[in-house]
Each structure stands twice: as structure tokens, then as C-alpha cells.
Amino acid sequence: YCFAAGTSMASPAAAGVAALIKQRFPGIDVGTLKAKLAQSAVAGSGDPEYYGKGMINALNAVTQ
């Protein structure tokens, strides 16, 4: 195990949660899926320009 960060680590997590959303809501369109990903994130601290919407949260994404 090692520490890793950045978009190369965030992309697989986001893709996995997007797949969970697609499974839970099969007819969802891409725009709504993207909005659901953003809205379900747990707000991060710091500069949103750098950190984006926060940390992805799979449970929020499929239950909201």
C-alpha cells in the first residue's frame, strides 16, 4: 500500500460511483448523473477551485 492522490486516483472512484448510480437509476441521462455525483459529494475544506465539489460519497449518490 502507498499514499496516492490526484485525478488519477479520483477518476476510478468517480467512475465506480457513476456506475452505481446508473445501476440504481437505469434511465438516468448523463447531465442528471453528473449533477447527482456533484450534489452527493461531501463538501471539502479549502479552495473549491482546487478541490472541486468535495469527496465523493457513494451512499449519498444512490440514496438521494
Order of helical and strand elements = HHHH
- Mean pLDDT equals 87
Question: Would you report the number of β strands?
Answer: 0
Which percent band covers the strand fraction?
under 5%
* Uncertain spans: none
Helical proportion? Answer: 55-70%
Biggest pleated-sheet summary = none
Number of helices: 4
User: Roughly how many Å is the radius of gyration?
Assistant: 12 Å
Distance between the amino and carboxyl termini: 33 Å
From the helix content, strand content and strand pairing, which structural class follows? mainly alpha
Report on this structure.
- With 64 residues, the chain is an all-alpha fold.
- Helix 1 packs across helix 2.
- It is globular.
List the helices and strands and how they pair.
Blueprint (H helix, E strand, L loop, with lengths): L6 H18 L5 H11 L7 H4 L6 H6 L1
Describe, in short, the structure shown.
With 64 residues, the protein is an all-alpha fold. The protein has helices at residues 7-24, 30-40, 48-51, 58-63.
Supply database-style keywords.
64 residues; mainly alpha; 4 helices; globular
